[in-house]
Structure formats: structure tokens, C-alpha cells
Amino acid sequence: MPRFFFLIAVLNTVALAQAQADSITSYELFAESIRHSVNKGFPLLTILIFVAVIILLIIAIVFYEIYRSNKMKQGLLALAWKKFDYNITLLKLSGNSAAILKEIALESGLQDPDSIIKSPHVFEKSLETYYKNRKIESIPSEKLKEIRNLRKKLGFLPLSKEIAFTSTRQFDSGEKCIVQIPASGPVTHKGMCIVISSDEQQWLMARPEGPQVTVGTWVRINLTRPGDAEYAFKAQVLRDLNGELALSHANQLNRTQQRNWVRIDVSIPVEITQIENGNVGDIFMGKIIDMSGGGFGMSLPIKLPTGSNLLLGFDIPGHGHIDNLLVKVVRVAGTVHSVAFEGAVHSIQEQIIQYIFEKQRQDSLIKHS
Questions:
Q1: Is the pTM of this model over 0.70?
Q2: CATH number (domain holding residue 289)
């Protein structure tokens, strides 16, 4: 009997051990099947391919956007050149002059080629690039004469006093100046001089009496332009022709002592915002009745005290919208208020000056037509 119970106990122990073993084996099989499932569903190669596809897709989108942007720029540039060609016909330039002007604009890589017609500053900068790339000494003299004539046809010579000099190539005969020779060291010549003539390669100046000046000598020049400013710069002597100095051109002119601005009559609606103690006050409409590079004359529906700060918003015909231009009332005569620019307004000032210059040129063409 005891043997029987002992056998039963042994069999139960074996059965229990077998059950535990079976349980461990089943868990391992289950875990293994999960691992196989994961490995089978997302192998490393598939993940790498998926990432590569995403990267290629992003690169394709970037290249497409670049292509689309370039295509749009090309379209806008093509339209800009059509506008340029049209405006050249309005200026009635000869075929040769028009071809040279377009050549200069292309050489300088202008995105807005029309600006070379409108702005003497853009014209001058483009020309400097053209001369540097094409080497001015290798350009035929007839072509240089044609370029000189282009300045006159575009209204850039003589240059309006409303527009600052940026190069000695913009000088016209008769400009007065003071010269010091040499620019540094013991002075051999100093006194008044006058611009005799100027072309694209050099300009001539009558020098004060004294010994002949050696070729290559640097001279210091101060040119005062009535109604504009004083310009200080250095130039190099190319030749001394019996008291007439042939000088190299300079395009780094130090401009100081701003004088009175040229003023023109206009009729431009303007939105005016009063500024009181740094806060925005009343907003009302007025009209700009005259304009200069330093300020405006405005007709207003109310009378404002001298010293009032205003923000102006208006359109410059053909030059876009001006917003939040800060000015101060400097003089009041009835409903007419004279205002001066306040703060850093150089870029806006350039737009206004350019508009004034263009309007003067248009009025001049109408008078002579």
C-alpha cells in the first residue's frame, strides 16, 4: 500500500514537471513567433529603403520649388526686358545707342533693366561694371563717344542738382573746385580750378600756376556744387598739358554739407496720422502740394501746431507706396503745412529724389517738344 502511494506521488511530480516544461516551451515559441513576425514585417533593408524614398521625395520637392522659382524669375525678367525695350522706343534712341544701352544693362546683370533708364545712379554703377569687365582702354573711341551722348539723351548730363554726383564722369564743363597737389606731402600747387571738359576715359581741369606735375601724382580736389553739396575726392594725373591736367576718373566721392533742395509742384493725396506723446492720434486725409528731397508742403483740413509729429502714407507715381514716413511740422501758413523728414529715411528719400528728377526731365521734354 505505501508503495502504491509513493508511485502516485512520483507520477504527479513527473506530470507537474512536464507541465512546467511544456509551459516554458510554449512561451519561448510564442516569443520567437513575435520576433519572427516583427523581423518579417520590418526588416532593416525595408526600413533603409523607406527612409531613402522619403529623403529622395524631399529632395525632389526642393528641386521642384527651385525650378518653379527660377521659372517665375525668368518670366518676370523677360517681362522686365520687354518693358525696357518699349521704354527705349519712347526715348527715340538710335539703333546704335539702344543696342549699347542694352549691352551695358546685360553686362551688369540688372534684374530691373528699366532702372538704368530712370536712375543716373544705376546707370553709373552699371557703366563702372561694364568698363571693368570690357576694359575701357580696349573699347573703341567712337563707342565711348556714343556712351557719352547716351548720358545727355537720358537726361543724366548735365545732372540735376537734385541728384548727387557718384562719379567724376558726371561732371560737366564749368564746375568749380579747389585743388591741392600732391594729395599728401609738401604742397606744390593749391588754388581754384575749373572743369574744362570730361569724357569717359578722363577729365580735364585747369590747374593753378606752378611747376609741371609728374604723371601718376595723386591730387586732392574739393568741388562745391551750389544748391547741392561739397565733394572731396582724389584723382591721379594722367598728363600735364601746359597747365591743363588730364585726370583719372573717380567714383568714390565724399559728399558733405547738404544745401537747399529743388522743390517741385505736385498734387498727391496723403493719409496723415498724428503722433502725440508717442501714441497714435487722429487720422485724416490731406494733399501734398509741393515736394523736395528734404520735405513736403501739404494742404490739410485742420491747422496743426509747429513741431507736430506725423506719419504719412502716400503713393509716388510710378515708384510705389510709401508708408509710415515720419515728418515734423516746421512751418504753418494758413492750411499749408511745411514738413521736414525725421529719422533714417535715406531709402525713401532716394525714391522721392528720383521721382523729382524724372518729373523735371518729363516737364523739360514737354517744353522742348
A1: no
A2: 2.40.10.220
